[in-house]
Amino acid sequence: MLTLEETIEEQKKQYRLADRALNTEYKKLYAGMDGAGREKLMKAQRAWIAFRDANAMLRGDSMRGKAPASATGKGGELLLYTALREMTEVRATELAAIRQERESARKP
User: Fold this and answer.
1) What is the C-alpha to C-alpha distance for residues 8 and 83, in angstroms, rounded to an integer?
2) Are 14 and 83 spatial neighbours (Cβ–Cβ below 8 Å)?
3) Where along the chain do its domains lie?
């Protein structure tokens, strides 16, 4: 069984992997767009990142004042990285779906 600290490190690792996958999908989608499409994608992605980060912080803060994990702040940290990972995985899937929709629309 993992300790809380080990679980947090695993969530951080999984978040980094999800973030790499997200960046890969973003680059693929961006490459297939024209200037106007790229602007829309960048605007949407910036807004999504702000939302993801704020939402993850909100989830992490939900542990504030809860014993025993709050004594170290580790419970909130776990929730923070779990939220970052989950939302980033979903966004990567979403961008891949958008790319596939665009590719399908171009086919005769």
Assistant:
1) 12
2) no
3) 40-108
Alpha helices (runs of H) in the chain, residue ranges in sequence order: 4-31, 35-61, 74-106
Q: Prior bond to 68 cis, omega within 30?
A: yes
pTM listed for this prediction: 0.89
Q: Could you tell me the pLDDT band of residue 66, with boundaries at 50, 70 and 90?
A: low
Could you count the other beta carbons within 10 Å of the beta carbon of residue 37?
13
DSSP label at 102? H
d(CA 12, CA 93): 19
Return the ∠ at Cα 1 (arms to 63 and 14), rounded to 5°.
65
Neighbours of 70 (CB within 10 A): 13
Closest CA to 48 of 32, 26, 30: 26
- Tens-place pLDDT, residues 2-36: 999 999 999 999 999 999 999 999 999 999 999 99
